[in-house]
Every structure is written in structure tokens, then in C-alpha cells.
Write a structure and sequence with these properties.
about 850 residues, Rossmann fold, 4 domains, nine-stranded mixed beta sheet
């Protein structure tokens, strides 16, 4: 079976309360016990900050690609009347989305949400043929309508949820009390409701706390003496917090003076004044009562372990998870004798009537003054808590799913998931929404976007290649050559099951780069508009271009894609801009840093162009941990060497024949790359000036445009007496011209002080041209022992290395570059595709997780 669990309960405010903890724990247990069944998770894009947490919680239990995010067109909470159209629309969109996951069972972890938050829950408003189950916690508002449903709008909202509950095929109650209550109040049959009970996580257990740790904990929470504890998970009337305060205030003075009362939980603003007034009324003194506010599970365990007595005075509970948590931690527990609570506590002498504060006071006094009884409660509680298990609850839930599946199969019910039929049905259903507040144009546009995001069509998966820089102009830099080359190969041979769609950002939104692709491929006949990009969760976004200047503009859009589960893969060419910001114009490093920080927070993977860059990125992440909780993969691929297959620019300069002829008269050293501070051109020119002064016959050929912060060197080049004789500076020449230069060169010289790869190395190796390289780790990675290396930054150090190389050259003893392994651009693109598609690919070398990386090589 394919079981889809709606886990919005772990996204809303419920995530920090019992419902959220219950939902996540049960989901984990179902995944553990699933066997041959397939578990999927459905979450909402209205809570993007919670999705990474859910992925991490379920890591190893539910594959990331099975955590599917549905989109809704904006605010949908029913408290605001302006949301009414969007609310009804969102219900249809969600159920249509769930149908598109092809489930055998849909389980709703929390149905009664959505009035105060943007949770979307319904059953049967669209896909009424999907077998659906619901967790039932309680029916408190239905049973006590005068207290919980005084507002007609809230009542209408709640009764609509009750109707959805009645549309469910099975109810999974969290206690026998909740089950019997649903049978009595709603008329369900006994077979339609299963009591799967509840449990707590294993970290709720007794723990050793040293005296020093206890003192620190007490000081942090303003605890001055032994304490009684209550963890309500809320402050509404049924929790009876004020009854507990009254009971504590009625304790004899000598006991009150010995203990404090601690209440865990965040007090809602609307109840703060009432609680404050009650504290004064019952006469609680300064320091006797402590409100801790919200605490996480780790601190909650400590509170349970340190309390003298845990008191649970609730009037009404569907189960009462705090009871089980406290007992599991070894706390002495007393509680109300109502609803489901006796099922959890399991002994009558630990129960009291919550409506009678004097009974609470009496039992508290007995336990506090009778150490053997208190110790007995502790020992009993630990044993009682062992009767409750999430795995046991999960097995009961799965058994209910299986029974439903068999019944439906026996009846010959077939799932109707024809995407075209369901899509038309959705459009018809949306058109029939009849509410008093009509949708705006923006609502309609957002709905169209959500429909596209929620509805992956067969064979419509896309690799969206971001070429925002290339579209606006080809600078013919090394990065642009890579972008052109990889893009061409992806367009020529799309991965099976994917369409390759180049896209660009137009300052407002992403568009398909149709016009650019037509020109790029020479397809002049096609006339396509650059339409707005449609994205679904099965797509892959590839940040192939370096679009650092767009970081702030596109961050929100990429965050939405991340929440939807779209793979976000970014190519990192190097991080030299932040390692040596002095090599660029002021402010450039800051822009690049923003880009690197942004992609490290939202990316699925960072693909570097060498293993050396991958190591540098890992080191940077260790020193600058991104704001994320889920791991990020770091990998690498190598670039291609076949210029002719890289969408090369063509054409030769007028004096090309003259230059090519001049290179054959003496050993010629070729430097390829933009003239910029890190490339070592100034050192190379000075070294050759030394050689020329010493009578050495050698040519220096520089291929590359003049860059930034190099005005002095550019002036030297333009006015150099050897220009056109022994010095040749070829600016902005075509790839075709460069392909002619390689085989005529005696060696390729790379004097760069930092590089991400070194594309000229493999282009030279392909032509069998020897190499003289600065001794950098990345150059060693690519060329190994098949190149000559030099160190030092002075002109004399390089000149000496060149003279030595020339001596070996004339003796034919220089290292040959023919042993260098190089890829074609087709192979390079395939390596990148493998990384995008396979999270286990060997070239994913690092899984970075808060500085704790796991290398696969």
C-alpha cells in the first residue's frame, strides 16, 4: 500500500504541543513498522520554515523525495473573513494534490485545525474516493459547546470539521475514552473506530543529574526550592490550571513554604489577566509560583526528573501525554479521575476529583508527607509507562489501514487517478465556489501557480538551467565557456524522463529562455515567447551560471522551491572572491559572500568543479555554519576539453596568419585567461623580460581580455617594445582561433595564484601541449605528474623555472601532458547529471551537517 500521512500538525502551533509530538512520533513508528508498505508525507508550503525540521526528523525512515509539499494560494485561516474564497479553494487544491500522489490510504494527523492558522484540512470535498483515516484526540468543543463554541463563526467552522470527520473511513482514537465518546456523540459503529492508544518518545526517561547541574538548572529557571510540576500543553478552562493554584494555596503553610509550584507552557495574552487576578485572589505569595514559558523536550525531561510531584488536574483529556512522560522519567504522579486519564495512570489511589480543589490539596499533602508512598508512585509509574509503545500504536494503525485496503479490494473499488479527468474536475469545482467575497486577480493568479506546483504531469519533469547571466550577454569568460558547453550537451542529450529548460530571471520572475535557445541552436524558424516558468516538486533547479548579483532578488523564490521539495543544485566554480577579496573591486566580495551564504542555506547540493574546491567549500562551511538543520551534499565534477563541442565562437583575426607564423620561429608559451590580479600575468611578463634581456629566444602569448584592477599592467602591455615581436596579446579572440594556438605552443603556462579548476590545462593536454603550472593543489589534482611545477611569486623565481624547463625541452625531457585524463564536454555534462539524479553518486564526496561531515571517499 501507499500510505500518505498529512503532517500539518507538525507545522502549525500544534508542533510544540501534545498533538504535534503525538503526530510525529506515530508517523515515525508507522514508518518503522511499514514493512513492504510505502510511506509518503504531505506538508503545506504555508509553513516553509518547518519543512526542513520534518525532513530531518524523518531522515532514514522516509526518503526525502517522499515528503511532498502542496501549495495553496495565500492566507487561508478561517478567522479572517477575507480568506473565505482561498480557504475553500485550498481545500480543493489539497485534496486534488493528495489524489495525485496515488494513495491507497490517506491519514490525517490533525483534522481540527485551520481557524487561527493557515492549516488546510478536509475530507471528501473533492476526492471522496480516497480511503481516509483521521486521528481523533477528543471531541471537547462538541461536548462542551457553550464553553468552546460561543462564537457562531467558530461553531460553523468546527461543525464543518465534524462533517469531514464523518466522511472518514476509519477513526484512529488515542484512547478508549475518545473512542466511546465518538460512538456516543457521532453514531459511529464500533468497527469504524480503532483505539490505537498513545506513547511517548524514548528520551523521556530517568537521568542522572549532578548537584552542580541541578544548581545551574534551578538558577536558570528561578527555582529556589523543591517543586511540584504541571505541564498542561495549554491554559484553556479544561486544563484546570486555576484549580491547581487554588489547591496549592490551600496547603498548610509549612508545606507551602517548603515547595514551589511550577507550571510549564506559554500563557496566551487573552488569559494572562485572568490568571494574574486568580493568583491574587487565592493568596499565592511571591516566589511560590513559577511560570517557565515554553520549554523544549530536553529541558522538559529535566523538569520531570527533578520534580518532587507531578500533578495533572485536567477536567478533560483525549489521552494525557504529559502523564506518561512524567511517569517514564520516574516522577511521582497524581491526576484527575476523569475521561481518559485513569487509563493512563492505572491506579485509583493516585486520582482525585478535579472539580474539588480540596481533594487535590489533600492528595498532594499525603504524597508530599509520605516518602514511601511517593517512592512507590515513582516505581509504579515507570512500570506502568512501559505498557505504552509507539510501535504498538503503529501496528494497530497499520492493521486498520490493511483491513480497509482489503475491504476496498474485495468490493472491487479502483483508484481513479486519471490526471486529466481530475484536473478538469478541479477546475469545475473551483468554478462552483460560491462565497460572499469574490477572489481578486491576485488570488486567481496565485491559484494558477499553486495548481501548476501541485500537479506534476506525466513525463513533464524539468531540469531548469539558470543561465541568467549568459542570456544578457556572453562575456566569453571561463565560466561562460563552461555554461555554454554544459548547456549545449544537456540540450543535445536530455537525461531520460526530463526536459532541459534554460531559464533566466527578468528582474521580476523567472522565464523560459526560449529566444536565447533558438539563437543558441540556430533554430531561426521557431517563434516562442519567453513564458513564465512552471515548476513542480519533481523538477531540478540547476544554478549553472554564477548569478551572485541576483541573490537578494531570487532568494524568496528559491526558498519556496526548497519547501516544495525541488532539488536545488548550484555549481560552485571557486570561492576565491572571499578568500582574496583584494583581487576584486571593492564590494564585489560582499556580493559573492551573500550568494555563497544564501545557497549554502537553501541548496540540496553544491557541485564544485574540482575536489580541491569541494574541500575549500567544506572548510568555509565549518567556519561559517549556514542557518539550516538538514545536511547538504558537496560534490565535484571535472570540465570538458573539446572546444569544438562547446558551442565555440568562430572567426579568425585579420592578422591571425601572421601571429601563427611568428609562433613557429621560437618556443612559445601560451597563457589563457582574463587579465586579472590572481592570474599571475604581471609576474610572467617580468619573467619573460628577464629572459629577453638575457638573450633567450622565447615568445609569450597572452589570450584574454583586460580585466579589473590591472590598469598598470595593461598599459605596460600596450606600450611594450616586444609587443608583436616576442609578446603577443590577443584580446577577445574566438574559440576557433584559440584552437589553432594550442598545437603551435611549446607549453601552456598557468601562473595563477588561485583557481577553481584550470580549463586550459585539459585543453592543452588534449593537444599534447606540455604544461608549466604554479604548484597549487587543484593543478596537482588535474595534472598530477604530467606537468612541470614552479613556486614563488618573484619574476626571478619564474624566470629560473622557465630557463630550466627550456633546457629540458631542448633535450626532450619535459613532462608530457598526454597522460592527463580529460573528459569531453559530453562526459562532463553526464557527470553533472549523475550528481543531480543520484544522491549516492561517488562524486558526492562530503555530506556536510553542522561541521560533522561524512566523507564517502
Amino acid at each position: 500500500m501507499r500510505i500518505v500521512i498529512d503532517l500539518q500538525a507538525c507545522q502549525s502551533e500544534s508542533r510544540v504541543r501534545g498533538i504535534g509530538r503525538y503526530s510525529m512520533s506515530l508517523t515515525k513508528a508507522i514508518a518503522r513498522q511499514a514493512g513492504r508498505h510505502e510511506i509518503w508525507i504531505a506538508v503545506s508550503d504555508r509553513f516553509p520554515d518547518t519543512i526542513s525540521n520534518i525532513r530531518v526528523e524523518l531522515e532514514g525512515l522516509v526518503p526525502k523525495e517522499r515528503i511532498a509539499t502542496f501549495s495553496v494560494p495565500g492566507l487561508v485561516m478561517e478567522e479572517n473573513r477575507q480568506n473565505v474564497w482561498r480557504t475553500h479553494t485550498a481545500e480543493l487544491l489539497r485534496e486534488h494534490f493528495l489524489a495525485g500522489l496515488h494513495p491507497d490510504i490517506v491519514h490525517v494527523s490533525s483534522l481540527f485545525e485551520g481557524y487561527y492558522q493557515d492549516v488546510v484540512s478536509s475530507i471528501g470535498v473533492f476526492a471522496n474516493k480516497i480511503p481516509t483515516t483521521v486521528t481523533l484526540y477528543d471531541l471537547i468543543p462538541l461536548i462542551h459547546q457553550e464553553t468552546y463554541l460561543p462564537n457562531p463563526r467558530i461553531k460553523d467552522y468546527y461543525l464543518r470539521k465534524i462533517q469531514s470527520l464523518k466522511n472518514a473511513d476509519r477513526i484512529l482514537a488515542i484512547s478508549e475514552y475518545s473512542k466511546q465518546e465518538a460512538i456516543k456523540a457521532l453514531g459511529f459503529n464500533n468497527e469504524e473506530i480503532v483505539n490505537i492508544s498513545a506513547a511517548i518518545d524514548t528520551h523521556f526517561k530517568p537521568c542522572e543529574i549532578s548537584a552542580e547541574e541541578k544548581n545551574i538548572f534551578f538558577n536558570r529557571h528561578k527555582i529556589t526550592r523543591p517543586f511540584l510540576l504541571y505541564a498542561p500543553g495549554g491554559f484553556d478552562e479544561r486544563k484546570n490550571v486555576m484549580g491547581l493554584m487554588t489547591a496549592f494555596a490551600n496547603l498548610p503553610d509549612h508545606i507551602r513554604g517548603e515547595y514551589q509550584l511550577l507550571i510549564i507552557g506559554k500563557i496566551p495574552n487573552e488569559q494572562l489577566e485572568k490568571i494574574t487576578r486568580h493568583i491574587k485572589t487565592v493568596g499565592l505569595r511571591q516566589g511560590e509560583l513559577v511560570f517557565t514559558g515554553y520549554v523544549d523536550d530536553a529541558n522538559l525531561v529535566t523538569f520531570y526528573n527533578l520534580c518532587t510531584l507531578f500533578v495533572f488536574p485536567s477536567f478533560y483529556e483525549g489521552f494525557g501525554l504529559p502523564l506518561l512522560e512524567a511517569m517514564s522519567c520516574g516522577a511521582a504522579v497524581i491526576a484527575s479521575n476523569t475521561t481518559s486519564i485513569p487509563e493512563v495512570v492505572g491506579r485509583t489511589d493516585a486520582l482525585f476529583d478535579p472539580a474539588r480543589p480540596e481533594e487535590i490539596t489533600k492528595l498532594m499533602q499525603v504524597v508530599l508527607q509520605d516518602e514511601p508512598f511517593r517512592q512507590n508512585l515513582r516505581e509504579y509509574g515507570r512500570e506502568q509507562s512501559k505498557k505504552f509503545s509507539w510501535d504498538h500504536s503503529a501496528k494497530k494503525a497499520i492493521a486498520a489501514f490493511e483491513e480497509m485496503y482489503l475491504v476496498n479490494s474485495a468490493k472491487g473499488k479502483e483508484k481513479n487517478f486519471d490526471s486529466e479527468v481530475n484536473y478538469k474536475k478541479l477546475l469545475t469545482s473551483l468554478a462552483k465556489i460560491n462565497v460572499s467575497i469574490a477572489p481578486t486577480n491576485r488570488d486567481l493568479g496565485n491559484t494558477a501557480d499553486s495548481m501548476a506546483l501541485n500537479t506534476p504531469l506525466p513525463n513533464s519533469r524539468q531540469i531548469l538551467v539558470d543561465i541568467s547571466v549568459l542570456v544578457h550577454g556572453d562575456s566569453k569568460s571561463g565560466i561562460q565557456r563552461v555554461v555554454r558547453s554544459i548547456l549545449l550537451e544537456l540540450l543535445k542529450s536530455p537525461p531520460p524522463g526530463y526536459k532541459v529548460r534554460p531559464i533566466y530571471f527578468d528582474d521580476v520572475r523567472y522565464r523560459y529562455a526560449n529566444h536565447f535557445v533558438n539563437d543558441f541552436l540556430g533554430n531561426q524558424a521557431a517563434e516562442l515567447d519567453d513564458g513564465v516558468v512552471d515548476i513542480t516538486r519533481d523538477d531540478i533547479y540547476l544554478g549553472l551560471d554564477l548569478s551572485a548579483h541576483l541573490t537578494l532578488a531570487i532568494r524568496g523564490y528559491l526558498e519556496k522551491l526548497n519547501a516544495l521539495g525541488v532539488k536545488l543544485i548550484f555549481v560552485v566554480y571557486d570561492i576565491i572572491l572571499i578568500q582574496h577579496s583584494e583581487w576584486w573591486a571593492e564590494g564585489t566580495g560582499k556580493i559573492f559572500l551573500q550568494w555563497l551564504q544564501s545557497i549554502s542555506e537553501i541548496a540540496t547540493g553544491l557541485v564544485c568543479i574540482s575536489n580541491a574546491v569541494a574541500d575549500e567549500v567544506q572548510e568555509w562551511l565549518d567556519a561559517n555554519p549556514p542557518d539550516r538543520i538538514d545536511p547538504i551534499q558537496i560534490g565535484y565534477f571535472h570540465l570538458g576539453a573539446d572546444i569544438e563541442n562547446s558551442a565555440p565562437s568562430t572567426g579568425l583575426s585579420k592578422n591571425a596568419d601572421e601571429v601563427l607564423k611568428a609562433l613557429s620561429w621560437a618556443p612559445s608559451f601560451l597563457m589563457v585567461g582574463t587579465i586579472e590580479p590572481r592570474k599571475g600575468h604581471a609576474q610572467a611578463l617580468s619573467a619573460f623580460e628577464t629572459l629577453w634581456d638575457e638573450g633567450v629566444e622565447a615568445n609569450l602569448v597572452i589570450v584574454g581580455k583586460g580585466g579589473w584592477l590591472m590598469d598598470h599592467l595593461i598599459e605596460r602591455l600596450n606600450s611594450h617594445p616586444m609587443l608583436g615581436k616576442r609578446l603577443f596579446w590577443l584580446q577577445g579572440i574566438s574559440d576557433e582561433y584559440l584552437a589553432h594556438l594550442y598545437p603551435l605552443s611549446s607549453a601552456v603556462l598557468m601562473a595563477s595564484e588561485a583557481e577553481g579548476f584550470g580549463l586550459p590545462i585539459i585543453e592543452a593536454a588534449r593537444h599534447g601541449v606540455p604544461l608549466i603550472l604554479r604548484d597549487l593543489p587543484v593543478f596537482r589534482e588535474i595534472a598530477g605528474d604530467h606537468a612541470a611545477y614552479f613556486s614563488g611569486i618573484t619574476s626571478r623565481s619564474l624566470a629560473t623555472a622557465l630557463i630550466q624547463w627550456l633546457e629540458e625541452y631542448h633535450l626532450k625531457k619535459t613532462p608530457s601532458s598526454k597522460g592527463i585524463h580529460f573528459l569531453s564536454w559530453e562526459e562532463s555534462a553526464q557527470s553533472l547529471v549523475n550528481l543531480m539524479q543520484d544522491p549516492q553518486d561517488a562524486n558526492w564526496v562530503i555530506v556536510w551537517n553542522g561541521g560533522k561531515d561524512g566523507r564517502k571517499k
